[in-house]
Amino acid sequence: MKMHDFQLLPEQDQIEILYQFGVYIGKHKQAFSIILLYQLEGFYVEVFYRKYRSHVKHLHCFESTECLEPYLEQIDVENLV
Amino acid sequence: MTNSTTARNVVFYADDDLDDLELVKDAFAQYSKNVEVLTATDGSKALSYLSNLKKYDTLPCLIILDVNMPVINGKETLLRLREIEHFQDVPVVLFTTSSQPMDKSFAKKYNAGFITKPIDVKQMEVIADQFIEHCSEEIRDKIRRQIK
User: pLDDT value at position B7?
Assistant: First the structure.
């Protein structure tokens, strides 16, 4: 599925697809909001929460790796060395 | 190790994500009269607590393990638990962000359930029930009967 096709779907369908096929990448906190990042084929989807894992505020899709930075900072590479 | 109530049926949950620990404790809140949720923040702490339980101690009616945990991950924790005689038949669920078939197969191979962490409330509403489904029939009935 291409990002554009995904974006055209109703939010609940997007969430269901993410749940079934998304690969979890990471999590970060912005102000009081928690954001989860998933990869779906060739693009990424951020899930912004009003309440963690309960009330989704909105989804944000992107393809650029620049938006991955806040998540990369959280990855502990100590165990990989 | 933390506990949230003083009830009889123990659900033991290990996860390094404090938000998920809270989430699961909240999910079991409806059963708080008869379910005690004990938590640990990595596999090593979980094993340290669980392996010190003796055969005749009250064992957890369910063990929930996150997969990606520091020190000892959930899969390794499951393997080591299954090597302990009195934990061979204790229900275990891998609770993970993964939905990968290989992780599901791993869980099945070691007689454990597999639940992907929810993304939104529709899945959250049923999450405690999904966990309880993995308990023995007797425990399941006991837990559910007490909230009716």
Answer: 47
pLDDT in tens, B23-35: 999 888 888 888 9
Query: Domain segments of chain B: what residues?
Result: 2-145
ipTM over 0.90? The verdict is no
Q: What is the tens place of the pLDDT at every residue in B100-126?
A: 889 999 999 999 999 999 898 666 557
**What does the mean pLDDT of chain A come to?**
88
What is the rounded CA–CA span in Å between residue B86 and residue B54? 8
Distances (CA, A) of B38 to B5, B75, B148: 9, 19, 24
Output the CATH code of domain B2-145.
Answer: 3.40.50.2300
Residues from chain A that touch B23, judged by Cβ atoms under 8 A, are 52-53
Return the ∠ at Cα B75 (arms to B69 and B78), rounded to 5°: 110
Structural domains in chain A, CATH included, are: 3-80 (3.30.67)
Question: How would you class A66 by CB atoms within 10 Å of its CB: exposed for 0-12, middle for 13-18, buried for 19 or more?
Answer: exposed
**pLDDT-derived band of residue B147, with 50, 70 and 90 as boundaries?**
low
Note whether B99 contacts A21, CB cutoff 8 Å: yes
From chain B residues 42-81, the ones with a CB under 8 A of any chain A CB are: 70
**Chain B CB within 8 Å of residue A45 CB:** no
Residues ≥6 apart with Cβ < 8 Å to A6? A14, A17, A40, A43, A45, A61
